[in-house]
């Protein structure tokens, strides 16, 4: 019974799950996974004759393996958040790796004339080694909750075709020809080459991602420069208005002067209303964003304990709060009723954690992917980077990020451990 873990369908599922370790789970994950995995594992035992049930065999070709292979893909797609392309890619790589285990096991069994129990133990050993190698590879190449980004259609087609070729030729050899050590070794090295080609997508995508991040950082610096200029323009325009209003005071009656002075007091009220959080850097961020929000007729209401954010680097702090408030201000602009254009910011210790809560009006429910809202702008390579940057910073400081939308209000919540330090 213990050799059940050497079955084809079980090995395929284990290898696929290795690729899903860093993926986001679907709601009620365990309620999905446990019964689905139990049914999947038991299915070959429940069907008379297992994989080689006559209804699944046409000549030398058996559909039983193919059915289980497809079901394994549907199982991980049912339990984890992934695209259809990712599911196909993970299935193809897992099948190729499993065939490598099979080839090594069969070569060893033939070369050493091993009895059944010893051969099964060797197969378990090879499976363990392959899983360890895959796990170490994924740990080094999956960073910050990233996944394989299978955008190259040609690579995906190659993965499917190569998997089908391995599948068909393997069972052709098993059924119609003699399965010699030479054929098995050739199979193994062919699969090894295919795996290297398929897994190279991680290295290529990582290099592309690093280059894209550099481009985004450069663009972000340009946008920040434009925002700073916009802030200066706001201040200059207010000063210009004040100069003319002061000049006009000289020719006004007492009553007109009193009314004009009241207007001037209201005009400069925004500068007095800037929050004092106890952290100069936080105060600077809030002051700048408040000025820009006023130009968009958006109000920022904040209660912030800036001292609690002293564990963050200044550039990380600016990126986190700056991106969050920029997104909130931009979304609030879409609200037609000016009275509802209010961004609420709360940041303070709460229950042994430091909590940041931001709310803003959002008339249309956004599309969420992997827990983050997807930008509605066409340039997805650059726009939408802010939310991913926020999630990256949350993970950097061992925090947690959640977002949601309800009744026209978008909310963003971040929890940091008090006194948290950045991950090295």
Short account of what is shown:
The chain has 424 residues and is of the alpha+beta class.
Molecular structure report:
The structure is a single chain. The protein is α+β, with helices and mostly antiparallel strands and 424 residues long. The protein folds into two domains: 2-214, no CATH class; 301-417, Histidine kinase-like ATPase, C-terminal domain (Heat Shock Protein 90), CATH 3.30.565.10. The protein has twelve helices and nine strands. Helix 6 packs antiparallel against helix 7 and helix 7 packs across helix 10 (280-295). The longest helix has 69 residues, at 181-249.
Characteristics:
single chain; 424 residues; alpha+beta; Heat Shock Protein 90; five-stranded mixed sheet; two-stranded antiparallel ribbon
Summed up, the domain count is 2
Instruction: Tell me the β content.
Output: 5-15%
Shape: elongated
- Roughly how much helix do the residues carry, as a percent range? 55-70%
Which helices and strands occur, and which strands form pairs?
Blueprint: H1 8-19, H2 29-46, E1 57-58, E2 61-62, H3 64-79, H4 84-112, H5 116-141, H6 153-176, H7 181-249, H8 254-267, H9 269-272, H10 280-295, E3 299-304, H11 314-332, E4 342-350, E5 353-361, E6 368-369, E7 372-373, H12 385-396, E8 400-406, E9 409-417
Parallel strand pairs: 3-4
Antiparallel strand pairs: 1-2, 4-5, 5-9, 6-7, 8-9
Helix pairs in contact: 1-3, 1-4, 1-5, 2-3, 3-4, 4-5, 4-6, 4-7, 6-7, 7-8, 7-10, 10-11, 11-12
């Amino acid at each position: 019974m213990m050799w059940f873990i050497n079955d084809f369908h079980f090995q395929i599922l284990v290898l696929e799950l290795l690729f899903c370790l860093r993926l986001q789970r679907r709601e009620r994950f365990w309620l999905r996974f446990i019964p689905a995995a139990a049914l999947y594992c038991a299915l070959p035992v429940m069907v008379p004759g297992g994989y080689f049930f006559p209804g699944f065999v046409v000549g030398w070709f058996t559909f039983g393996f193919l059915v289980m292979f497809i079901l394994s893909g549907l199982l991980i797609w049912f339990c984890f958040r992934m695209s259809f392309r990712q599911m196909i890619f993970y299935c193809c790589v897992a099948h190729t790796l499993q065939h490598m285990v099979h080839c090594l096991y069969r070569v060893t069994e033939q070369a050493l004339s091993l009895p059944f129990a010893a051969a099964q133990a060797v197969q378990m050993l090879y499976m363990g080694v392959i899983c360890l190698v895959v796990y170490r590879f994924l740990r080094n190449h999956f960073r910050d909750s990233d996944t394989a980004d299978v955008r190259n259609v040609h690579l995906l087609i190659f993965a499917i075709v190569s998997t089908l070729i391995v599948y068909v030729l393997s069972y052709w050899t098993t059924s119609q020809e003699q399965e010699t050590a030479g054929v098995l070794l050739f199979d193994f090295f062919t699969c090894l080459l295919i795996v290297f080609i398929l897994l190279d997508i991680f290295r290529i995508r990582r290099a592309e991602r690093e280059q894209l991040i550099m481009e985004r950082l450069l663009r972000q610096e340009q946008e920040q420069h434009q925002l700073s200029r916009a802030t200066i323009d706001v201040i200059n325009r207010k000063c210009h208005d004040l100069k003319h209003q002061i000049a006009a005071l000289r020719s006004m009656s007492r009553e007109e002067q009193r009314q004009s002075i009241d207007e001037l007091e209201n005009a400069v009220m925004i500068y007095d209303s800037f929050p004092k959080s106890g952290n100069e850097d936080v105060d600077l961020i809030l002051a700048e964003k408040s000025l820009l929000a006023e130009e968009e007729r958006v109000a920022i209401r904040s209660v912030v304990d800036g001292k609690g954010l002293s564990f963050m680097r200044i550039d990380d702090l600016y990126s986190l709060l700056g991106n969050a408030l920029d997104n909130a201000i931009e979304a609030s602009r879409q609200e037609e009723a000016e009275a509802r254009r209010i961004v609420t910011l709360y940041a303070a210790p709460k229950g042994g954690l430091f909590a940041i809560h931001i709310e803003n009006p959002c008339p249309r429910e956004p599309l969420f992917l992997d827990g983050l809202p997807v930008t509605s702008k066409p340039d997805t390579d650059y726009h939408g980077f802010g939310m991913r940057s926020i999630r990256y910073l949350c993970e950097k400081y061992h925090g947690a990020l959640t977002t949601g939308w309800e009744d026209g209000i978008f909310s963003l919540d971040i929890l940091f451990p008090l006194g948290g330090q950045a991950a090295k």
